[in-house]
Specification:
The structure holds two protein chains of two kinds.
Chain A: E1 2-8, H1 11-27, E2 29-35, H2 42-51, E3 59-65, H3 70-76, E4 82-86, H4 95-105, E5 111-116, E6 133-139, H5 146-149, H6 151-156, E7 159-163, H7 175-185, E8 190-193, H8 202-224
Parallel strand pairs in A: 2-5, 2-6, 3-4, 3-5, 6-7, 7-8
Chain B: H1 3-18, E1 25-34, H2 41-52, E2 61-67, E3 70-73, E4 79-81, E5 97-101, E6 105-113
Parallel strand pairs in B: 1-2
Antiparallel strand pairs in B: 1-6, 3-4, 3-5
Helix pairs in contact in B: 1-2
Classes of the chains: A alpha/beta, B alpha+beta.
């Protein structure tokens, strides 16, 4: 006898993610999920991003790693609420972890929640965290063909950030080819090239975040009116 | 390597479904995996085998239905399989196409053997 199930394998995670999405909507929080290989510059991106905000700016960070609270310590220096999620070996963040740590962080909207996922281009892309956008980082010290090797995340990400552009004169990396490969997988993916060291491209990145926050707020206002 | 977590979620779902059919023998569970789902078939089979060992579910077969990426043309509604990253419509040439398959990570069905009715 065949029993039709037709259920998502990760339906329990999806259920919790839907709860987070509702919470973000109710509290007017913009949540972005930042994903990359280890060492592509996620924490450096967040450091410079936080440094650009004035004290009291409504922003908080959840940062995931297998071990250590090094990233949280690096990010806490800027004075905004930061919490480390130590996964203890799990290679991705899931909606349950976000829910628990967000409660413990005590962050309430309106504001911006930056989630730094575990360094991994594969597993984090399967887990919905209720975020408004996934952002994938690719650094110039990696290969231009990474989007073709890891299509899942480039397909799901709204924005690709090319990082460490200050190193371009020293490496054989062709940004146009990297973007061309990303758009083979996801033609609409947005693109910003930046350097967290020199700050090049940061105006564009901060503008992108502000524009998304504005769009999400407008959408929420339209639904609530 | 998140296939252990995926296999564990599949088994949780199987257990919940099995409760609806007390006494039935579970034969197989079919999962649909899209090429963009980031799940490796071999790793999933390995994890599934490891998690069912010595649990009474060793006989439960995992059937994987692999789903390649497919797009649909917004202009002419043509549906086509993507080859060599070519997302443009092969019929009308439009580049405005949308992904309709390839991201699946679904449990499709369970095969059960009901206990023989007593005469």
């Amino acid at each position: 006898m065949r029993e039709v199930v037709e259920k998502k394998v990760l339906s329990e995670n999806d259920r919790l993610a839907a709860g987070l999405r509702q919470r973000y909507h109710d509290e007017n929080i913009l949540c972005v999920n930042i994903i990359s290989s280890p060492g592509s510059g996620k924490t450096a991106l967040l450091e410079r991003t936080l440094a650009s905000y004035l004290p009291g700016h409504p922003v908080a960070v959840l940062t995931g790693d297998l071990q250590t609270d090094n990233d949280a310590r690096r990010l806490a220096r800027f004075g905004f609420p930061v919490r480390q999620i130590v996964t203890g070996g799990t290679c991705h963040l899931d909606a349950r972890m976000i829910d628990r740590h967000l409660n413990e962080l005590g962050f309430h909207g309106p504001g911006l929640l930056l989630v730094e996922n575990v360094g991994n281009l594969v597993c984090p892309s399967s887990y919905d965290l209720g975020e408004h956008a996934k952002i994938v980082l690719l650094s110039v010290t990696e290969g231009e063909d990474k989007p073709l090797k890891y299509p899942g995340i480039f397909h799901r990400a709204s924005l690709m950030l090319l990082t460490k552009t200050d190193l371009l004169p020293h490496v054989e990396f062709n940004p146009d080819l990297a973007l061309e490969n990303a758009r083979k997988i996801h033609p609409e993916i947005e693109y910003i090239a930046l350097s967290s060291r020199t700050g090049d491209g940061f105006d564009q990145w901060l503008h992108w975040l502000n524009a998304l926050q504005y769009k999400v707020q407008q959408r929420a206002a339209a639904i609530n009116s | 390597m998140h296939e252990i977590g995926i296999a564990s979620s599949i088994l949780e779902c199987v257990a919940a479904e099995a409760e609806k059919h007390p006494g039935a023998q579970l034969a197989s569970v079919c999962v649909r995996i899209g090429e963009l789902s980031n799940v490796d078939k071999d790793a999933l089979e390995f994890a599934f085998e490891a998690l069912t060992r010595d649990t009474g579910l060793e006989h439960l077969k995992l059937v994987v239905e692999w789903c390649p990426r497919r797009q649909k043309c917004i202009a002419c509604s043509e549906e086509f399989a993507v080859q060599d990253y070519e997302l443009a419509c092969p019929k009308c040439g439009s580049s405005q196409t949308t992904c309709i398959s390839g991201t699946e990570l679904d449990i499709a069905y369970l095969e059960l053997e009901e206990p023989c009715a007593k005469s």
